[in-house]
Amino acid sequence: MSRSDVLRGRGWPCSRRVLSGAGAAVVLAALLPAGWGPASAQPPQQPRALEPADRTGKVMGVVQGRLQVRITNTGDLWLVGTQPQATIEVVGTASRELLAPKQFVQCAVEIDDLGKVTQPVDKVTFPGGGTPAVTAAGLDVSDPKARRPAGKRPPGSYIVSGFIKSADDESIVVQIGRERFEIPVPADAELEVRTSNLGVVNVGDDVELEGEYVQRGQLMATSVKVSLANPLQPPQKGKKRGPAAP
Fold first, then answer.
1. Which of 179, 198, 181, 200 lies closest to 124, judged by CA?
2. In this structure, what CATH number is given to the domain that contains residue 86?
3. What is the pLDDT of residues 109-119, one digit of tens each?
4. Measured between alpha carbons, how far is 135 from 72 in angstroms, rounded to an integer?
5. Residue 21 placed within a domain
6. In angstroms, rounded to a whole number, what is the distance separating the alpha carbons of residues 130 and 117?
7. Which of 37, 40, 65, 233 is the most exposed place for a label (fewest CB within 10 A)?
8. What gap in Å lies between CA 175 and CA 166, rounded to an integer?
9. Is the four-CA dihedral 26, 30, 35, 36 of positive or negative sign?
């Protein structure tokens, strides 16, 4: 083999033509020891269900719509977000001051043939919003067939759902369309909060969680149930708070 042949790349088993493109990669891979080169891709971590022992805790704060929860079992602090189809329930009691205009309430009442409420109510519920309506007692209020419009409503038991128009120490007035219902609310009536609005949650409230995590301390919850530690108060001026619908 002549010097000129060598310079032209002829006669060598690993000439420039052989080492070009994909061939070069094959040759290099064969020459490199095992373990050299880029690391193999790691499979993504699979979400793990939150262990039953870690499903209760106390709310330590609310950060951008997510809860900071101190887990009772371990004392660890978790940041809890919610999945799109998560079940959220906030339950507790309300202060008497929450019986105020613009709050949405539900009451089981007795109505006479003139459309008047005849008896004081035992309980007022704050559901955090809904559709104003008068519905037959014992039926799902979300069922259109349960609604009883004015003029087609015999005397009996009904659920009144709507916004408080006005209130005093003894009663509230709920506006539904053109109708107004004056509902006596005695001092010993139960004032119940049952809403999906996490905006009413406070530090110290008890919480039960279900969900999944990839990294411990960061939970995407499928179920959040909060029990309010104290009666819910009206919102402060300049702050949106309380279960009233916007």
1. 181
2. 2.40.50.140
3. 999 988 899 99
4. 42
5. yes
6. 21
7. 40
8. 9
9. negative
